[in-house]
Amino acid sequence: MKEKLVVFSGAGVSAESGLKTFRDMGGLWHEYALEEVASPKGWRANPAAVLRFYNERRQAVLQAQPNAAHLAIADLEAVFDVVVITQNIDDLHERAGSSHVVHVHGEILKARSSVDASLIHVLDKPTIELGEVCAKGSQLRPDVVWFGENVRHMVACEQHFATATRILAVGTSLTVYPVAGLVEVASDAAERYFVSPEIQKLPYGFRFLQGPATVVVPHIARCWLEGRQPE
Fold it and tell me: Any catalytic annotation for residue 105?
C-alpha cells in the first residue's frame, strides 16, 4: 500500500501560471467590488455582471498551462497515494496529471443550477450567458463557492488530513476559513511542509521552505521520490 500524501494548494500555485488571485485584483473588478460579483447577493442584484466576471476568468483558465509545481505534484503519484485538496477553481492540477483532486471552492469549468446546487453541468464552451438554463429551467451559474456559501467536501478533507503521513501546503495564505483549519487536524506524526514566498504564521508542526512554488515544490518532490528529506 502506498504512503498517503496530501497536497493542500491555494491561489499562489495558479498565480505562477499567470492566473490572478482575488488579492491581485485589488478588491475591484472594473466597476464592481468583488463582493458584488462573487456572492449570492451580487448574483441576485446583477447576474449579468457576475457571469461576465466568471466568463473572463474562465477564458484565462483555459489559456493558462500547468506549471512546474503542478507537474511535480502529479509526478509524486509514482510513489505515493496523492490527494490534492485545492482552494483553486481551475483545472491545472488535473491537466498536469493529478488523478485525485478535491475542489473545496468548486470548479469554474462547470455550471450549476441557480436553484438546485446538486444539478451540475460540465461546460462545453467558455461562457455562460443569461437565458442559458439547466434541465429544471433555472438560470445556469458558475459552479463555484461564493462569499457566504458553504465550502465543499470538508468532512472528507478532514479525514484525508488526519490519515496522511506527509502533507505539503503550497500557495495558500492559510487565512481563509474554514478551509485553513484543515492543517490543524493533521497527525502529529506526519511530515509537514509549508511552501510560500512569505508567511504570516507557520502552522504547528510544519517546516517552512521559502520560495516560489515552481522552484520549491519540484525540489521537495525530487527529494521524496528519491527517499530523502527536503532541506
Answer: yes
223 and 186 in a common domain: yes
Cα of first residue to Cα of last residue in the chain, in angstroms, is 26
Using CA atoms, how far apart are residues 111 and 142, in angstroms rounded to an integer?
Answer: 5
Q: How far is CA 44 from the centre of its chain?
A: 25
Q: How many residues are present in the chain?
A: 231
Q: Which of 70, 93, 103, 105 is catalytic?
A: 105
Q: Containing domain of residue 129, as a range? A: 20-63+109-144
Higher pLDDT, 93 or 1: 93
Contact 100, 82 (CB under 8 A): yes
Please state the domain count of the chain.
2
Do residues 100 and 174 both lie within one domain?
yes
Residues 91 and 193 in one domain: yes
Q: What is the pLDDT of residues 154-208, one digit of tens each?
A: 999 999 999 999 999 999 988 778 888 999 999 999 999 999 998 878 888 999 9
If we measure between CA atoms, which residue out of 183, 195, 204, 205 comes closest to residue 230? 195
CATH number for 37: 3.30.1600.10
Provide the H-helix boundaries in the chain: 11-15, 34-37, 40-45, 47-63, 68-75, 92-96, 154-163, 213-225
